[in-house]
């Protein structure tokens, strides 16, 4: 993939993020209109004239609320579609960068046992909710795409490897997983389970947990920490 293609993908990603923010702003504005109407109704007195105004305002409020609910559902659907598009673009960019790095290094790199292996997919920060190990719906198309590629390599082994940033766990995540190593294991296992459910032989899939020990980027920025929170799917050839 050329630098121009990567730049075009980055531009498309930024445009999608801008559209998502615009939709979120519209939702917030609609919610503010609803709150203003409700406040006006509560502050009205009980005189007959004001009661008539209240009834009129109530009818208008109900109409506005109906429109708000309709628009909210539309915006939520659009936001969901944008989320999937954003994640897909991020995954495509990540894959392109990884492929470029692999090419510069001379192709597939050997593992610790000297076996050649190739990166099939790198599921990024959006694959899991913070402190959780349940696959998000938005990432499932990328898992299915990786599965299709793996099923074409019968007899090869698959290594699913979990990574985190270096921020210590806290709250419910710490209570459930204890540390980043354990969290990275459960995230990698969730991906491995999805691959096995899709048809890979269980004996061909191994899970590895690296926690924060193998960062792909420095952990001193939000962007770097976000990129380090990932699950990689590797095809290992004998």
UniProtKB/TrEMBL annotation:
Entries under CDD domains matching the protein: OmpA_C-like
Pfam families: OmpA
InterPro entries, alphabetized: Bact_OuterMem_StrucFunc, OmpA-like, OmpA-like_sf
Any single Gene Ontology cellular-component annotation: membrane
Cross-referenced PROSITE patterns: OMPA_2
Record key words, sorted: Coiled coil, Membrane
Domain of life of the organism encoding this protein: Bacteria
Coiled coil: 6-71
All residue ranges annotated as the OmpA-like domain in the record: 115-238
Keyword Coiled coil found: yes
Name of the molecule in the record: Putative OmpA/MotB domain-containing protein
Organism this protein belongs to: Megalodesulfovibrio gigas (strain ATCC 19364 / DSM 1382 / NCIMB 9332 / VKM B-1759) (Desulfovibrio gigas)
Lineage: Bacteria, Pseudomonadati, Thermodesulfobacteriota, Desulfovibrionia, Desulfovibrionales
């Amino acid at each position: 993939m050329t630098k121009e293609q990567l730049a075009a993908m980055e531009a498309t990603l930024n445009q999608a993020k801008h559209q998502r923010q615009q939709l979120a702003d519209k939702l917030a504005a609609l919610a503010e209109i609803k709150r203003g109407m409700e406040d006006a109704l509560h502050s009205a007195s009980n005189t007959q004239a004001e009661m008539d105004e209240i009834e009129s305002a109530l009818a208008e409020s109900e109409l506005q609320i109906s429109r708000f609910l309709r628009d909210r559902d539309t915006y939520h659907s659009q936001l969901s579609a944008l989320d999937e598009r954003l994640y897909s673009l991020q995954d495509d960019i990540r894959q392109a960068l990884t492929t470029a790095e692999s090419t510069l290094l001379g192709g597939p790199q050997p593992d610790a046992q000297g076996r050649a292996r190739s990166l099939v997919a790198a599921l990024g920060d959006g694959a899991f909710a913070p402190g959780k190990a349940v696959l998000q719906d938005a990432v499932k198309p990328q898992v299915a795409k990786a599965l299709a590629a793996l099923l074409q390599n019968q007899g090869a082994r698959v290594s699913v490897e979990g990574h985190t940033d270096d921020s210590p766990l806290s709250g419910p995540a710490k209570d459930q997983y204890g540390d980043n190593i354990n969290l990275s294991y459960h995230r990698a296992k969730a991906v491995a389970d999805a691959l096995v459910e899709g048809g890979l032989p269980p004996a061909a899939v191994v899970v590895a947990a690296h926690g924060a020990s193998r960062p792909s980027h420095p952990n001193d920025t939000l962007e770097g920490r976000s990129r380090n929170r990932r699950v990689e799917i590797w095809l290992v050839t004998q």
